[in-house]
Specification:
The protein has 15 helices and 18 strands. The chain has a nine-stranded mixed beta sheet with strand order 2-1-3-4-9-8-7-5-6, with helices on both faces. The protein has a five-stranded parallel beta sheet with strand order 12-11-10-13-14, with helices on both faces. Helix 8 packs antiparallel against helix 9. The protein binds xanthosine-5'-monophosphate (XMP).
């Protein structure tokens, strides 16, 4: 689904680690944009996409290398503003008649840019209090500007930090305005899109109306099935689709017996009772827990759960009869194609763990109304749809559920202990007002019993580990720096309130080298 009402900005991706952040900064300014790998940006594509402006991203290649990527020539003849970032600047200079040479050393990190001429509209709001901090990350550098370009800002190591050919509306900077360490960077993007004539009208309200119209168009009077996991993405997708087509939507919530405390009740309460959405609540916990008995290898656990889930989901979905569409909460980061320099674009499309393979098997068409959104935009859409903050702000929860928080063999007893300990831990985090600062927090029950003493008696119970991390996307993460008081109080509460645990540890591993989940 692409936005056909709004002005569109095209980001041509050359493989920078931070290309997604360009899109984030633009979306924050209510600009609709899409990222496409350079290989896919053909003349035909440009014609169809019809961008109102183009940004050329950074990237790891060197323009000096044989066969390194270039921008499609048509980008420079479209007659729309073009902004090159880092590698994007270098290819602009190279392709438009300037010169790029290998730098003597890589420049990486914080730098300060001094204005040579701050009157350029791109620089509105810049240099008002002196030099601007920017983030550099480059090896090669521009040594001769392309005809028509002038210098507007310099840094000690980048004499061409900000360059422009205002007559042609071409702009090129050596640094990365999209990253946090270029504090005024968002303003630069806003100036660029203002100059390109964007209205900045891509709001969540507008997105919602448009998405509803498109769902109606796609689905007609057919039936749609949506798998609910209790997570934010599938919940928002379901409420949106329900707003579009009402009772043509049926949700299926499979309780695997591996959900957190009260989760099943909350989901059923919210969707069936509050929203009146037809909902099949399939309590299949015995099936899953029996299948997992004796399994301790993490991959076998995941595969067992994944396969069973598909079988069970298919059975319940078929019971609806005649549904032609399957709804999924796929997000934009899952569909952006990554750039590879060794051959064609390598497509890294993650399908949701739980429903991977389902659409093909059931021969259903997909409805994916969140395909254009980042996670925080999904949360904003959820609020727009009236979902309560407590639901919209929930921590992510993995498809295999508590199974991957129970290293070693899974038993009903261990899952029950884990569920209780997890509930106490989350209650502690909420009571201390820390929930929203944390990306994900949970307890893992360890496959080890330890000796303890309670009252005058000996105990021989399970040990558990608390996990809490901060992250922006789950790809990298830091452990959360709880105070010792918080940790001590939490350990005491878990041991007092949860039979079966007599030792509590805190996991202080970041990702990498650890992962967020224990399995
Ligand atoms: P890791 O453990 O790989 O997790 O650092 C990164 C993020 O992904 C979640 N996760 C999953 N989500 N199905 C899911 O839907 C899965 O199989 C799965 N494994 C990990 C994890 O909770 C964290 O947010």
């Amino acid at each position: 689904m692409t936005s056909d009402i709004h002005d569109r900005l095209l980001i041509v991706d050359f493989g920078s680690q931070v290309t997604q952040l360009i899109a984030r900064r633009l979306r924050e300014a209510s600009i609709y944009c899409e990222i496409h790998p350079f290989q896919n940006v053909t003349d035909g594509f440009l014609n169809d996409f019809d961008p109102k402006a183009v940004i050329l991203s950074g990237g790891p290649a060197s323009v000096l290398d044989e066969g390194s990527p270039r921008a499609p020539k048509a980008v420079f003849t479209l007659g729309v503003p073009v902004l090159g970032i880092c590698y994007g600047q270098q290819i602009m200079m190279d392709q438009l008649g300037g010169k790029v040479e290998a730098g003597l050393e890589r420049e990486f990190g914080r730098a300060f840019v001094t204005a040579s001429d701050a009157s350029l509209p791109l620089l509105d709001g810049w240099f008002e209090t002196g030099d601007e901090q920017v983030w550099m990350s480059h090896g090669d550098r521009v040594t001769q500007l392309a005809p028509g370009f002038e210098v507007y800002g310099t840094s000690p190591n980048a004499p061409y930090a900000i360059t422009a050919d205002p007559a042609r509306n071409f702009y090129a900077v050596q640094f990365h305005p999209e990253v946090h360490h270029t504090p005024n960077g968002a303003r630069l993007y806003r100036n660029f899109t203002d100059m390109a004539g964007f209205k900045g009208d891509w709001t969540m309200g507008a997105y919602k109306d448009e998405a509803i119209r498109k769902i109606r168009e796609q689905v007609g009077d057919e039936k749609v099935i949506c798998g609910l996991s209790g997570g934010v993405d599938s919940s928002v997708a379901a409420v949106l689709i329900h707003e579009a087509i009402g009772d043509q939507l049926t949700c299926v919530f499979v309780d695997t017996g591996l959900m957190r405390m009260s989760e099943a009740d909350e989901v059923v309460g919210m969707f069936r009772d509050t929203y009146n959405i037809p909902l099949i609540h399939a309590d299949e916990s015995d099936l899953f827990l029996d299948a997992l008995a004796g399994v301790s290898d993490p991959e076998v656990k995941r595969k067992t759960i994944g396969k069973l889930f598909i079988d069970v989901f298919e059975k319940h979905a078929k019971s609806v009869g005649g549904a032609r569409f399957l709804a999924q909460g796929t997000l934009y980061p899952d569909v952006i194609e990554s750039v590879s320099f060794s051959g064609g674009p390598s497509v890294t499309i993650k399908s949701h763990h739980n429903v991977g393979g389902l659409p093909e098997r059931m021969d259903m068409a997909l409805v994916e109304p969140l395909r254009e959104l980042f996670k925080d935009e999904v949360r904003a859409l959820g609020r727009e749809l009236g979902l309560p903050d407590s639901f919209v702000g929930r921590h992510p929860f993995p498809g295999p559920g508590l199974a991957i928080r129970c290293p070693g063999e899974i038993t009903r007893e261990k899952i029950e202990i884990l569920r209780k300990a997890d509930a106490v831990y989350l209650d502690q985090i909420r009571r201390h007002g820390l929930y929203d600062e944390i990306w994900q927090a949970f307890v893992a029950i360890l496959p080890v019993r330890t000796v303890g003493v309670m009252g005058d008696g000996r105990t021989y119970d399970f040990a558990c580990a608390l996990r809490a991390v901060t992250s922006v996307d789950g790809m990298t993460a830091d452990y959360y720096p709880f105070t010792h008081e918080f940790l001590g109080e939490t350990a005491t509460r878990i041991i007092n309130e949860v039979n079966g645990i007599n030792r509590v540890t805190y996991d202080i591993t970041s990702k990498p080298p650890g992962t967020i989940e224990w399995e």
